[in-house]
Structures are given as C-alpha cells and as structure tokens.
Amino acid sequence: MLALLHTILLHRSTGKFHYKKEGTYSIGTVGTLDIDCDFIDFTFVRVSSEELDRVIRKAVSEFKDALSNSGSDGMGQISLEFYQKKKSRWPFSDECIPWEVWSIKVNVVNLANEQERQICREKVGEKLGEKVINVVEVINRHEYLPKMPTQSEVDNVFDTSLKDVQPYLYKITYQITDSLGTSVSTTMRRLIKDTLAL
Amino acid sequence: MDSDLSPQDKKDLDKFIKFFALKTVQVIVQARLGEKICTRSSSSPTGSDWFNLAIKDIPEVTHEAKKALAGQLPGIGRSMCVEISLKTSEGDSMELETWCLEMNEKCDKDIKVSYTVYNRLSVLLKSLLAITRVTPAYKLSRKQGHDYVILYRIYFGEVQLSGLGEGFQTVRVGVVGTPVGTVTLSCAYRTNLAFMSNRQFERSAPIMGIIVDHFVDPPCSSQRPTHMGQPCNYRAPDEEDGGTFAGVQDSQEVCTTSFSTSPPSQLYTSRLSYQPAALAGAAELCHPAANPNQVIHRSVSSSFMLLTDPYGDDDGLSQSAEGRRDEGRRSVSPSDPVESLSAFTRKVGAFVNKPSTQITAASLDLPFAAFAPRGLDSEENDPMVINMLTDIFCASLHSQGSEGSGQQDDFVMVDFRPAFSKDDLLPMDLGTFYREFQNPPQLASLSLHISSQSMADDLDSLPEKLRVYEKNIDEFDAFVDMLQ
Q1: Is residue B52 part of a domain?
Q2: Is residue B453 part of a domain?
Q3: d(Cα B455, Cα B457) in Å, to the nearest integer?
C-alpha cells in the first residue's frame, strides 16, 4: 500500500507542476505554493488554487484506485492532455485537438522492508528532480502555444471554469495495464473509441 | 540591431529585462530562505505583479540587486549572477550554487516584444520557481539553523564558477530570444558536498596534539556525511537531537561487536579521560548510573572505537590467553551495551589515576603523551597490530607515512625506528608512541589480586542483571524489529 502511495505522490507532484502553462492573459496573477511530498523527500511548486488542486487530486486518486484494483504488480499510465476546441459545423460536435500531451508511466513496486523503502524513497526523490528538469526543458523550447484568443473564443483555449486561475484546456485520462501486458488490445480499443467519438 | 526595434519596444524590452532580473533574484533568494513560500492567486492584478506571477518583493533583496546592477542591465558580456553559499557556525564557508542570467548575441528579430517575450519570460520565471526546489541546495537551505546558514551574493560581470569545486553540474532553466539577444538563465551547482568536512579536517590536521576533534572527526564524518557543519562528537553529549540519536543506533551496533575483543577498549577510555575540556562526556562515563543519557555519551567513545577497531580485533587475539584466564568473562559482556558500559566505568579508574603524576603541561596536548615517558614493559604484542595502528594514525595525523617495523614474527622484541620520525621532540616522538602501544601497561583487571575481587563482584551481580534484562526483553525485541 505504501508503494502505491509512493506512486501516487509521485503522481501528484509531477501532475501538479504541469500547470506551468496556465495563462492569465491580462486578467490576474497566479500565486504559487511550495508543497512537500509526504513520503518522498521532494518539494514542488504548484499553483495556489484550491479548486485546481481538488480537481487534480480527484483524478489522481481515481487513478490510484484503479491501479490498486488491478493487482499487485500493475502498470499504468496517466496522461495530461492540453487541447483546443474547434467549433465545427453542425451536426458534428466540437472537436478537441490536443496540442500537447504529457504521459506518465507508472509501475507499482512492492517493497519488502524499511530499508528498501528508504532506498526507494531517495531514488524516487532524485528521479522526480530529474523529471522536473526535463519538463522545464521541454516547456522552454516554446514549440507551440495556442494563439491568445479574443474574448469570444476564450473558452476554446482556456478553462475558464476556475475562478482564480485559468489554465489551458486540459484533460486527464489514465489507463491501467496489468503485468500481462494486454496494452495492445486496450490501445486498439481506445483507437476505435476515439475515432467513433468524433 | 536596434533599428528594427521601435523605441517603445526597446523601452519595454529594457523594462522587462530589468524587472525579470529583479524578480529572478527574488525567486532565488526566497527559495533559499529555508521556508515554504506561499502566495495567493488573485484575479485583479496589482502594479507589482510582473509577469503575471505573484512574487513578493523582499526590499533588502531588491536593494542589493539594484546596487549590483548599478543602473545597468544584463547584457552581452555582462551577466548577473547570484551566488548561494553555506556558512557554518564556525566560520567555514562553501559556495553551493551560482545562478547566472546571461545574454548572448543570438537575436530573434521577428518576435513580438510586448506579447511573446513577456509571456516567455513569465514561463521562464515559473520554470525558475520549479528548478530552485530541485537543486541540492534547496534541501540544505530548508535545514539551515544554528549549525549553518545560507548566504547570497549578487554580482555583475563575469561568471565565476571556480568556487564550486570539482564536478559541478549545470542545469539550464531556459532561454528566451529577444530582438537584442537571447536571455539565458542557468544554474551551476556543486555536487561534491563532502568537501565541507574535509576542509574542516584539513584545517586542524597539520598541528599535532590537537584537541579531540582530530581523532573523532573521521568516524564522525563517515557516520554522518549529510550533516553539514555538524561539529564533532565533543558537542554531541550536550545535544540530544534526533541526529545524535540516529548516530547512536548505528554506533550501538558497532559497539557490541567491538566489545567482544574488549581489553584494548579500556585503553581508549583512559585516553578519553585525558581530554578535559573537549570531551565533557568522558567524565560522565564514570557515573555508573544507567540512564538514557548515557547512551549518547557512549556514542563518543564508540565512535572512537570505530577508528581503532582493527587494532582492537587483533589485540584481542593476542591477548586471548589473558582473556581465557578470566574464564571467558569478557565474552559475556559484549552482547549487552549497558553491561559493557558498566565494565567501562569500572576500568576507567585504573587509568585515570595511574599516569596523572606523569602528565606535564606540554604533553596534555597530545592525548597519548602520558604513555610516552613510561618504560617498556615486558609484555609483547603482535607487531602486525602496530603496523595497522600506524596506518590508521598516520592517515589521521597527516604526518609521517611510516609503515612501522615490518617484522612479521611474533614474540620478537624489536627495537625499531619508524621511518620519517624525528627524535628531537621526545614526548611527541612516534617511536616512543609505537613502543608504548607495543607494550601497554599491565591491565589492572588482569593483575590477579584485583581481578579475583572484581570477578567475584561481577559474578554476584550477574544474576540480578540477567533478571532485569529478561524483564525488559520485550523492549529489546521491539527495538530489533524496529531496526529491520
């Protein structure tokens, strides 16, 4: 269980700082908050928005439950997708076009005793640090960002449902694969579902 | 270059860069204050919320930054650097990181100043926020307190990375292209954090006859490498913090094994008692009361034992004959820390009084000088032991590198001359030191008339002790489980 909590916190930390891309475009300011991870010796910065925090936590705990239900040696992947909505003509509904997708692969690890856990904690802390640096590197490549929308098109680019910050439109999805590696079938299923969902 | 840029844009760009520099310094310094930063998001911006980020402005820091900039802006060849260093309560300092805001010549003419550059600078600041929590100095700064403090220094001009030691790592926070150049923010941080304890050590090593730090330092730093600036164990008896306890757990483990060849350990006790000022704990060793505080004091002696453990092992072998004379009583004692402690306390008296008449003012400096004037005894020890001991003490003394006699035969009385030693300073002579070690004085407990008395006492108290320990067996089991 603690191993799962590990992964979940690993999640929480990486999930949170993804929100570097929220814009405020002349509306307001974004405050920041330092969060210490409970089980890992790591501190990350997140946006100080309780609503956003709640949304992320909910998604992450769903993922965690799914992982724990799948069995002891599960693997999973959680994806954070930033998308843009594009209004299409009737009768089709709006298209969601992702412009950036972050995927985190998670492996559940069972740790036998306190010593192993301690070693794992330190390793995970270091890895997290490296991942933060990677994320920052990628973000700083400034590859693509949606154009700043006009007033009427704000909802197509930004998530205006939160009252204090305004991240880009995002979606969190996850999938669990058990250790037998049935991911191929799940991928196929997903592909078909996605094409039909248009 | 500037002809493509409108005057308004140029002004804006300069303003952005200036405030970016100021905000960068704020972020870095605030990240090293040792506290968690918390700012609120608000939907109505104020004038000081540059880059749409709520970063508080500490006035002192702004003042320092403005002073360093002196009206200039970071430009090509003029970098703004923030140096983070650690300073211990003893005055040692070490550079930990250098954050550099540089500009190079690569221009991005097509970029829009007021919008894209601004947003990218904002993203860069956010990245800086994240990266400042990732470097090793962050963890150090969160733990700063009375042992050490984190200091910052802002300077302008050439980047100086020489103080970061070997193998420092660089992480690039990000770049933003502007029409006048590319702004780059990077951090170079030291990876060799162990340098700290070495430096403390180097400072004290050349002087012979140094205070107890000299000998307790190596085991101390090997036990607790992450406790930066933690002075040696001679302060440990006074401080009952968690760190000391953690060290004690380990040393207790070591203690029990080293006690199995315990006779030489009594020698160490006597040495400890010679450090009057530094080792306050040693005096406490004389108290037979077994309370939890004793455990801390023992960490002093046990770490001492770490240093000289090989000697202990070997000497035990050669003295096994004597040990057997005591009917293996000593083999019983090591398994129990408290009992060994009482064994300790009993033996201290044997040495505290004996050489006191021979202590001169000069030899008080050298812990083992008291042994020097004494003549050779007829006891013979394994010369191999001497070699090993020589190696250990030579390493710590940083002085002579002699290998001792090199004779491998047992029971041969050799009058050896250690290489590289000088004969003029008699009390400090390495040769006499070796000789004393070769022929330690007869242990009080081994002399028959005392041993019979003490043995009887010991045997009497044994059943009682066993009863007490059996009563507490649950505690010990819980302790063992906890360790696993």
Answers
A1: yes
A2: no
A3: 5
